Amino acid sequence: MKKFLFLLTAPAMTLGAFAQTAADPDTSAVHNLDEIVIEAPKVIRKADMDVYHPSKSAVDNSKNGMQLLTNLMIPSLAVNDVLGSVTSAGKAVQLRVNGRTATIDQVRALLPETIKRVEWIDNPGLRYNGAEAVLNFIVTNPTVGGSLQTMARPAVNQAWGFFFGDAKFNTGRSQWEVGANYKLTEKIKTHRDYTETFTYEDGSSLTRNETSLGGEMDNSFGNAWASYSYIIPDTTVIFIEASAFHKFTDRFDYRGLLSLSNGSDDIFLDDIHGDKGSTPRLSAYIEQHLSNRQTLVVDFNGSFYWGRSYSDYTERQPVTGSSLTDIHTMIRDRNQAYTVEADYIKNWNSSRLTAGASYTANRNRSVYENLGGRIFHQRQDKAYIFAEYFRRLDRFTVTAGLGAQYTDFHFKETNQGNSSWNLRPQATVTYAPNQSHQLRLNFTSWQTAPSLAETNIAPQQIDGFQWRIGNPNIKTSNSYMLTLRYGFNSRRVSGSFGIRAFTSPDAITPVLYWNDGRLVTSYENSRGLQNLSFFLSPQVEIIPSWLTASGYLQFRAERMRGTGYSIHNNNWSGNANLQLMHWGFVLTGQYIRAQHDLWGEKISWGENLSIVAIYYDWRDWQFGAGMIMPFGRYDQGSRMLSQWNTNEQHMRIDMRMPFVQIGYNIQWGRQKRGAQKLINANANVDRSTAGGR
Q: Is residue 353 helix, strand or coil?
């Protein structure tokens, strides 16, 4: 009889579970019905995001949030836990935890068991204020009251490593968290390949070839944080966080021998540049749920920066040692940034309205010690308002909204500045006949305000030929992007492919010109950048729960136009990932081919990387080993195509580094959930940049 009743009620329970999933897409990925387990698809494609539910094997083989993200194998992402980066199509991805902006360290501090799902948003709405892509970790209420996470990852053959620790404690409705990390990079051997040709106004030219004589790179920094949250479930959230970031050193030292095409004697050169400083931050957040499914959220962020950037460039004769060029630039900054944001959210059964406003203030004070202690003050203010409406219509969903941004900046010493209003329209239409197929058309726009370095009129000498001077008259630029994407799911293969069109008709770019025998780099609102991209991002379960491959492949064609030039660029880029997981072991391999970006008259590319690693979990411990750049050659560089200066630079670093890793995680007691932020005001303090070749 019991067996008969079970057979009778199981279909109804299954339908009920399905209905609950359809009505509430945030339902857990797995439903247990006595002896039956119903699993949701690995990726659920919603109108405005792709939702990934971690599998049991992914959770069991992870000790922190970054490892879990790696194990999810999201095809559009290049996740580099070893070097601490998350990118998509060569661009940084904005990380969030329960809706609030987070750092790599905060994601790493997440307990894998508490991550309910990961939301991948490649077409962020207006409330994300111009983010190109967003990755949001939704964390559930843990069942333990405290946790301690530690990890050390030193290299075997060089002074390089990463060290991390984080602890959480709970009392009633309160939670405290403290954590710190330290990243060591000291005296890493490096060199560069560099050649340049200067063309003068009279048509004559001079070519300088640089033969590397070696160099070193230092890049060590530390970060510490403490947070407090108070939560009344479904009613109130209060969150306060203080952190301090300190860059101990970020120093590049190149030595070379210059040979000149005019027959002059060779020249020894030293090119040293870098920066160091501290950035304390404070944030405060409150979320209040009101009646009739309304929510009001307010967020405040403040950051400060005390530090210096420097550039030392010397040229000397090899025989006599006499100086030909001796340039020393030292800029000391004392800068501040404040942001406050408020959003109102109203939900109905099949629609949602979001409206908000934010204000950001930057106050910068720069002392140029190489100019006799000359002081420059810059003020920049930004105000942003938006409204966005989402509506579900059977198999279609529509999102439309409009934002408006006001930007104003002003130099105190010269009484120069600029201000402008810019509109930010956005719309998305999605058609999904079922969970296996989805077609999405998205239009988005955003604004980019000029930076401190682009507007500061203080002249900086770069070398014997070149200078840099900012332009206080440039205006905030506009960018527009249209993306058509098709997403698909099958039993073992999922992914997406599509086409993306981008234009920035008044992009802020460098411009070069001769003035009194000096080649000056300044900035302008150009005649625009346009590009067209075709992309494919598949994920394949070769052996289910054991062997998985994922990747991202993109071809991009682009054109950049400015004063006196029109340049075209075509390139392939992408990443490939392979993961074998079994018996507590995880073996991973990754290859990244950097995207080549055209901006102004320069084509730049990031790091071409390869990494292999193996990890083993034993109780609360994790042991691992791997190698950075086991094959291939590290290459990061640029190519300048100006009519006045053509050059090509390749930065080479001895990155073939084997490393070991050991981690220990422990949990105890009963733990409260971390504060959930629906918005996050972003107050990134600006800073000066000393000129360098």
A: strand
Joined tokens for residue 25: 């897409």
Buried b (16+ CB within 10 A) or exposed e, 464-485: ebbbbbbbbebbbbbbbbebeb
Q: For residues 277 and 268, what is the distance between their CA atoms, to the nearest angstrom?
A: 30
Above 70 in pLDDT, residue 33? no
As a residue count, the chain comes to: 693
Which two tokens mark 28?
């857990």
Categorize the per-residue pLDDT at 56 as very low, low, confident or very high, splitting at 50, 70 and 90: confident
Q: Is the pLDDT of residue 4 over 50?
A: no
The pLDDT of residue 364 = 93
Helix, strand or coil, per DSSP, at residue 12: helix
Q: For residue 141, what pLDDT is reported?
A: 52
| SS3 annotation, 248-287 | EEEEEEEEEEEEECCCCCCEEEEEEEEEEEEEEEEEEEEE
Looking up tokens 């059977």 gives: 394
| Torsion angle, alpha carbons of 90, 93, 403, 291, to 10 | 160
Give the integer Cα–Cα distance in Å for 510 and 508.
7
Q: How far is CA 427 from CA 45, 432, 633, in A?
A: 18, 17, 42
Question: According to the model, what pLDDT value does residue 398 have?
Answer: 95
E strand spans, 369-454: 374-393, 396-411, 416-434, 437-448
**pLDDT of amino acid 693:** 59
Residue 339's pLDDT band (boundaries 50, 70, 90)?
very high
Those residues with Cβ within 8 angstroms of residue 90's Cβ, 6 or more apart along the chain or in another chain: 573, 594, 595, 597, 606
Cα-to-chain-centroid distance, residue 67: 17
Rg (CA), the chain: 27
Integer Cα distance of 96 and 118 in angstroms: 10
Q: Which residues of 291-315 are buried (b: 16+ CB within 10 A; e: fewer)?
A: eeeeeebbbbbbbbbebbbbbbbbb
Q: CA–CA distance from 13 to each of 16, 23, 34, 36, 39 (Å)?
A: 5, 15, 11, 11, 14
**Mean pLDDT calculated for residue range 394-421:** 90
Residue 295 has a pLDDT of: 93
Taking the mean position of all CA atoms in its chain, how far away is CA 625? Answer: 26
What is the residue-averaged pLDDT of the chain?
A: 86
Tokens encoding 170: 């709970």
3-state DSSP assignment of residue 587: strand
- Residue 65 parent element (H or E): helix 65-72
**Both structure tokens of 139:** 């964390």
CB contact burial 665-692 (16+ within 10 A = b; e otherwise):
bebeeebbbbbbbbbbbbbebbbbbbbb
CA-to-CA distance for 14 and 28, rounded, in angstroms?
14
Band of pLDDT at residue 44, cut at 50, 70 and 90: confident
Q: What CA–CA distance (Å, rounded) separates 650 from 176?
A: 46
Q: Which has the higher per-residue pLDDT, 318 or 515? A: 515
pTM value is: 0.80
Residue 545 DSSP code = T
pLDDT at 231 over 90: no
**Rounded distance, CA 630 to CA 624, Å?**
16
123 versus 196: the higher-pLDDT residue is 196
Measured CA to CA in angstroms, residue 126 lies from 389, 410, 568, 588, 634 at distances of: 10, 27, 31, 36, 38
Q: In what order do the strands lie in the sheet with 115-121?
A: 43-45, 50-52, 115-121, 134-139, 94-97, 100-102
> Has residue 8 got a pLDDT over 90?
no
Q: What's the pLDDT tens digit per position in 543-578?
A: 988 999 999 999 999 999 999 999 999 999 999 999
